[in-house]
Write a structure and sequence with these properties.
The protein is 41% helix and 19% strand. It is an alpha/beta fold. It folds into two domains: 106 residues, Aspartate Aminotransferase, domain 1; 233 residues, Type I PLP-dependent aspartate aminotransferase-like (Major domain) (Aspartate Aminotransferase, domain 2), CATH 3.40.640.10. It has a seven-stranded mixed beta sheet, sandwiched between helices. Strands 11-12-15-14 form a four-stranded antiparallel beta sheet, with helices on one face. A two-stranded antiparallel sheet has the order 1-2. Helix 2 packs across helix 11, helix 3 packs parallel to helix 11 and helix 12 runs parallel beside helix 14. The longest helix is centred in the last third of the chain and has 16 residues. The chain starts with a helix and ends with a helix. The structure holds pyridoxal-5'-phosphate.
Length: 353
C-alpha cells in the first residue's frame, strides 16, 4: 500500500501542479496488485483453448451473470460486433436507441461486419421501453428488413451513465421472446448500473441472449471485454472472433488483470459514483453552468453557457482534463485513478471559475 501511494503521487501530483484526468474511465493504469496478478499468470495458446487463465476468466464471468459461456476479446467493440454477427443474418435489422455505442461509436461496424440496418429510437437519456420497441418491429413483408435483434446499453454512455433496472428490462425481454427477437446488452458499464440499481448480476442471464462486459472501463483492467451467451453461440463467436482478427495467444496475462478486477474493483465503483455526486453538486452552484444532468453513476454531463471548447481550455489551465460531448456540453468521468483529494481540488477549481 505504501508503494502504491508513492507511485500514485508520482502519477498524479507533479510538483505543485495537480492533474485530474476526467476524460474517460478507460485511462486507468493497472494497480500494483493487478500487475502482480498479471506477472504471475499461468498462460498457454488461447487459440488452441490452452490458456487456463483465459478459460478461468470466461467461466468466472459467465457464472457471475448466470450465463453458460463466455469469450474473452480485445475490446468492447469486438464483443458487441461479434454478438450482432451471431444474432443476425445479412439484410436483417436491429433496434437500438439513437445514442447507442454500437451505432455511434463503432465506426459503422453494424453495416460493415453484419450487413444489417439499424432502426433508431428516441429514448430518454438512451433508455428505451417495450412500448417504444413494439411498433418498430417490422411485419413479415418482402419490402421490409427482417427485425431480428434488440440491443440495450446499461449504463448508457451518451445518456450520462443513466441506468435500466431489471424491472425495466423484463418487459423488453418478454416482448423479444414473444416476437422471436434476440436481446443483446452492451454492458460496458454494467457494474456501475448494478451498483446504482441494487440489481444482481446473476439475475441478468435469464433476460439476455448476449451480454458484453468491459473489464477496461470502471473495473480498471488495461485491456479486454468478455461476451457472454449460451454455449452454441459462444462456439460460433470463436469462429467470428478469429475472422475479426481477435484470436489472441498467451492472453492469460491480460485475462489475469480481468480476474483481479472482478475480485477487487467491482464494489469500489461506488466511490466513483460518490465522487460524481460531489462534482455534480458543485457544478449546480456554478453560474457558468446552465444545466447539470442527474449523475446516477460515474459520469457527469453538464451544459455550459460559453462554448465547451472555451470552458475546457480554462479547465486545462488548472490541470483538469475533460471531453466535450456537444458544442455546449462537457463530460466528466470518474474512475479508480481519481483520488478524493483530486475531487476536492476539482471542486475548488469549478467554484472559482
Ligand atoms: C467503451 C464502450 C464500449 C467498448 O469500447 P472499447 O473501447 O471497444 O472497449 C462499448 N459500449 C459502450 C457503451 C462503451 O462506453
Amino acid at each position: 500500500m505504501g508503494a502504491y501511494n508513492v507511485k500514485y503521487k508520482e502519477r498524479n501530483f507533479k510538483g505543485n501542479n495537480m492533474t485530474v484526468d476526467l476524460r474517460s474511465d478507460t485511462i486507468t493504469k493497472p494497480t500494483p496488485g493487478m500487475l502482480d496478478a498479471m506477472m504471475n499468470a499461468s498462460v498457454g495458446d488461447d487459440v488452441f483453448g490452452e490458456d487456463e487463465t483465459v478459460n478461468a476468466l470466461e467461466e468466472k464471468t459467465a457464472a457471475m451473470f448466470g450465463m453458460e459461456a463466455g469469450i474473452f476479446c480485445p475490446s468492447g467493440t469486438m464483443t458487441n460486433q461479434i454478438a450482432i454477427k451471431c444474432f443476425t443474418q445479412p439484410l436483417d435489422e436491429l433496434i437500438a436507441d439513437q445514442t447507442a455505442h454500437i451505432y455511434r461509436y463503432e465506426g459503422g461496424g453494424i453495416a460493415f461486419n453484419s450487413a444489417v440496418s439499424t432502426r433508431l429510437l428516441n429514448g430518454y437519456r438512451g433508455i428505451i421501453t417495450a412500448e417504444m420497441i413494439g411498433p418498430e418491429i417490422n411485419a413479415e413483408n418482402i419490402h421490409y428488413p427482417h427485425t431480428s435483434l434488440v440491443a440495450l446499453e446499461n449504463t448508457v454512455n451518451k445518456g450520462g451513465g443513466s441506468c435500466y433496472t431489471l424491472a425495466q428490462i423484463k418487459p423488453i425481454a418478454e416482448l423479444c421472446r414473444n416476437k422471436d427477437l434476440k436481446l443483446h446488452l452492451d454492458g460496458a458499464r454494467i457494474f456501475n448500473a448494478l451498483a446504482h440499481t441494487g440489481d444482481k448480476a446473476a439475475d441478468y442471464g435469464q433476460y439476455f441472449d448476449g451480454i458484453s462486459v468491459c473489464l477496461s472501463k470502471g473495473l480498471g483492467a488495461p485491456v479486454g471485454s468478455v461476451l457472454l451467451a449460451d454455449k452454441a453461440t459462444i462456439k460460433y463467436a470463436r469462429r467470428i472472433r478469429k475472422v475479426f482478427g481477435g484470436g489472441m495467444r498467451q492472453a492469460g496475462f491480460l485475462a489475469a488483470a480481468g480476474i483481479y478486477a472482478l475480485d477487487h474493483h467491482v464494489d469500489r465503483v461506488k466511490i466513483d459514483h460518490a465522487h460524481a455526486q460531489i462534482l455534480s453538486e458543485a457544478l449546480t452552484q456554478c453560474l457558468w453552468v446552465s444545466n447539470v444532468l442527474p449523475a446516477e453513476t460515474n459520469i457527469v454531463l453538464f451544459d455550459t453557457i460559453e462554448p465547451a471548447t472555451i470552458v475546457l481550455a480554462k479547465l486545462a489551465e488548472h490541470g483538469i482534463k475533460a471531453l466535450p460531448t456537444d458544442t455546449h456540453r462537457i463530460r466528466f468521468v470518474l474512475h479508480l485513478d481519481v483520488h478524493p483529494e483530486q475531487v476536492e481540488y476539482a471542486v475548488g477549481v469549478l467554484k472559482g471559475m
